[in-house]
Amino acid sequence: MSKIVNRSLAVALVAAGTVTAQRVMRLYEERNPAALGKDSAGEERWNAVTISAEHRLVVDGELPRPLQGLEDRIEVRYRAAPGDRGVELSARPRPGADSVQELRGEIRKALRESKQLIETGEILQSLPRPEGHRPATPTGAVVDLAERIGMKGGVL
User: Fold this and answer.
1) CB 91 within 8 A of CB 114
2) Whether 92 contacts 46, CB under 8 Å
3) Which end of the chain is more exposed for a tag (fewer CB within 10 A), N or C?
4) Looking at domain 39-129, which CATH architecture does it have?
5) C-beta separation of 118 from 68 below 8 A
6) Is-above-0.70 flag for pTM?
7) SS3 letters for the chain?
């Protein structure tokens, strides 16, 4: 009987913790526009990367290859990077774009890949693993998930 009570108590605590975390996150997003990808005026924030490039990034009006698939849903701008350190490439969702949260992740990934492509000539990849197949483990699955999520988030 005590095992059933302990399990029920554990399930109730996990459920309560989940609901509390969701409420805290919702309050944080309501009070902090940056958490929703907005600036203080409520506009979509620009995501930017500084690219060490001495040549023009736009050739014949074309964006870097990773950004080309998004060009109808995003705004892109170029400007000199601070401290004369190259070019700053920025992008953000167009006003009224669908699935803005998902699009933000795609923009971050495309900017990261554009920087790599322009600076090194190739897009660096950790997946598929160059060392070949490895057996699936619970901790390995967590690492794989973190890598997939991290490609659309984190520091540019």
Assistant:
1) no
2) yes
3) N
4) 2-Layer Sandwich (3.30)
5) no
6) no
7) CHHHHHHHHHHHHHHHHHHHHHHHHHHHHHHCHHHHCECCCCCECCEEEEECCCCCCCECCECCHHHHCCCCCEEEEEEECHHHCCEEEEEEECCCCCCHHHHHHHHHHHHHHHHHHHHHCCCCCCCCCCCCCCCCCHHHHHHHHHHHHHCCCCCC
Q: What is the largest CA-CA distance in the chain?
A: 74
pLDDT tens for 74-108 read 999 988 888 888 888 999 988 877 778 788 888 98
CA–CA distance, 83 with 120 (Å, rounded to integer): 22
Q: How far apart are CA 137 and CA 140, in angstroms?
A: 5
Nearest Cα neighbor of 89 from 134, 126, 57 is 57
**Which phi and psi (to 5°) does residue 54 adopt?**
-100, -5
Residue that is written with structure tokens 């923009």 in the block: 107
User: For residues 149 and 153, what is the distance between their CA atoms, to the nearest angstrom?
Assistant: 7
